[in-house]
Design brief:
Blueprint (H helix, E strand, L loop, with lengths): L3 E3 L8 E3 L2 H8 L1 H12 L2 E2 H8 L3 H13 L3 E9 L2 E8 L4 E3 L1 H7 L2 H24 L20 H18 L20
Parallel strand pairs: 2-6
Antiparallel strand pairs: 1-4, 3-5, 4-5
Helix pairs in contact: 1-6, 3-4
């Protein structure tokens, strides 16, 4: 017997992250990969496990956390051979930290620590790539750090232009390779 339940699969353009726990759930590299795949299309746990090369039991742990924090949702449930097969989808194509709401719950230091944990997760992924023994060339990895002296107007302009560039590349290439991108723009103290 096969049964099916489909819910709205619409994806929001932007969803706010309103608390530190949700931000920390999304910072994890494996969960971030899952969400990125689910931004492009609805997938079952089997599909996700195959694409990510991880065991389904481990995947269900991450899916439960993402669902609990309303980063993903179940959009389809089918009964296949007596077992419920769920299809998941990200709730949005972009998640943006709502600093105003976080500010009422967290100190500036806690917010900065959460943001820094994103950069630390990227550094961890870069180290894991090197440890895997996969050869890298200058074309494979690009890391740079610089200090610029910018007026407030030019800093805002740079932020807008970087955002537009990211938006230009946001949609997935069907035959593309997973590529991690991290960016931090701030005024150091």
């Amino acid at each position: 017997m096969n049964g099916q339940m489909v819910v709205n699969t619409e994806v929001l353009a932007v969803a706010p992250i309103r608390d530190l726990e949700t931000l920390q759930a999304l910072v994890d590299s494996q969960r971030h990969r899952i969400v990125t795949l689910l931004m492009d299309e609805p997938l079952t746990a089997k599909d996700l496990a195959d694409r990510l090369g991880i065991a389904r039991t481990r995947l269900y742990y991450h899916l439960a956390i993402l669902e609990q924090h309303e980063i993903i949702r179940v959009v389809d449930t089918r009964i296949v051979s007596g077992i419920a097969e769920r299809t998941y989808r990200a709730v949005a194509r972009l998640f943006r930290v709502d600093r105003a709401l976080l500010g009422s719950q967290a100190s500036e230091l806690q917010i900065s620590d959460a943001q820094a944990s994103i950069i630390e997760a990227v550094a961890s992924d870069l180290r894991a790539r090197a440890a895997s023994g996969e050869p890298a060339s200058d074309e494979d990895v690009f890391v740079t750090r610089m200090f610029l002296r910018l007026s407030e107007e030019r800093r805002r302009e740079l932020r807008v232009r970087l955002g537009a560039l990211i938006d230009e590349y946001r949609s997935a290439d069907p035959d593309g390779t997973e590529t991690e991108f991290a960016l931090a723009l701030f005024t150091p103290e």
